[in-house]
């Protein structure tokens, strides 16, 4: 069977057809695994998150009817992987994703209250606005590092640059981001 559209896959979910999961695995399984593995660094844990992603998608459609399935599934998998990462970190397991989190720590707020959650959404929107002002390469490197959790080496290989260039470019973008957020009133 060839590639089918996101709309067709979503229709399968709405019809409660098990073929929806099979199509999702074929088209997006590798992406979801890479995303989860980049965060967790443990194959079995990542695999469990991916499987939970399929289950969550099954339970959320209907009522959800995403137009673009890849970001929809990516958001589910990323959330599950981050929750699993928090759980594993609490057990004092060493995971490489903590490096990426520490790189962004000085730019972001923390908290669990409703007000803090609202502010986090506002900060996320401000980050998106900021990234649109960056050149394409800087923006893509930032997203590859902090959304897809790619390693510095993977980013360097993808863009044909040195790891040193990636590190310095990310450092400069984080600096501009911090300055932008502070200017916008998100003193962190």
Q: Which short descriptors sum up this protein?
A:
188 residues; mainly alpha; Rna Polymerase Sigma Factor, Chain: A; Arc Repressor Mutant, subunit A; 2 domains; 9 helices; 74% helix; globular
Q: What is the helical fraction, as a range of percent? A: over 70%
CATH structural fold name of the largest domain: Arc Repressor Mutant, subunit A
- What string gives the helices and strands in order? HHHHHHHHH
Q: How many strands in all?
A: 0
CATH class assignment of the largest domain: Mainly Alpha
Are there runs of 5+ residues with pLDDT below 50, and where?
Answer: 109-113
Radius of gyration equals: 18 Å
**Shape summary:** globular
Number of H/I helices:
9
Instruction: Kindly estimate the percentage of residues that lie in beta strands according to DSSP.
Output: under 5%
Structural class: mainly alpha
Could you tell me the mean pLDDT? 83
Write the CATH architecture name of the largest domain.
Orthogonal Bundle
User: What distance lies between the first and last C-alpha atoms, to the nearest angstrom?
Assistant: 51 Å
The domain count comes to 2
User: In the CATH hierarchy, what is the superfamily of the largest domain?
Assistant: Winged helix-like DNA-binding domain superfamily/Winged helix DNA-binding domain
Main beta sheet strand tally, sense and closure? none
